[in-house]
Specification:
With 160 residues, the chain is mainly alpha-helical. It has 9 helices and 3 strands. The chain has a 3-stranded antiparallel beta sheet with strand order 1-3-2. α6 crosses α8. This is HTH domain-containing protein.
């Protein structure tokens, strides 16, 4: 399991975009990024706008320069900045799946109302995230522990 597996799809693509720019040696064409990330150019432009907004504090501080042109992008780092420091760590900490795991880790046994209150999630969203976590944690044989600590059944009956 990779830590980016804890992210939702949109944040995962933004992190992949940032990683591609971080590892690139100079400017990268939007067409190439679109192909690498398997997204349309219009979606890529939305992800670029989101990345620009998320990096705004580092850009304003002068630690990062993000050159956005019509056909290409370039990320320049001033000084030594790691990929995780840029955005990845923040994205992981804000991810619902990570917050669920931390809540279980810190409190031990968590009830459904506690999850709903702490994370401001609906029951349906909570079940969806728990199912994702069950599949992610299956390789570590942690699924039964997660089910027991949540004090609820993870699988939901199918509606007729």
């Amino acid at each position: 399991m990779f830590k980016t597996d804890l992210l939702d799809k949109q944040d995962r693509i933004v992190v992949m975009l940032l990683e591609a720019l971080y590892l690139a040696d100079g400017a990268v064409s939007k067409q190439k990024l679109s192909q690498e990330l398997a997204v349309s150019l219009s979606s890529l432009n939305r992800y670029i706008a989101q990345l620009n907004q998320l990096l705004a504090p580092q850009i304003n501080a002068g630690a990062v320069i993000l050159n956005i042109q019509s056909n290409q992008l370039e990320l320049k780092l001033v000084g030594q900045v790691t990929f995780d420091e840029l955005y990845c760590d923040q994205a992981i900490r804000n991810a619902i799946n990570y917050q669920i795991l931390m809540l279980i880790y810190q409190k031990g046994k968590v009830t459904l109302p506690e999850f709903a209150f702490e994370l401001a999630l609906s029951e349906a969203s909570l079940y969806r995230h728990l199912q994702q976590l069950n599949s992610l944690l299956a390789e570590f044989k942690l699924t039964p522990d997660l089910q027991c600590k949540c004090n609820t059944k993870i699988t939901r009956p199918k509606r007729p």
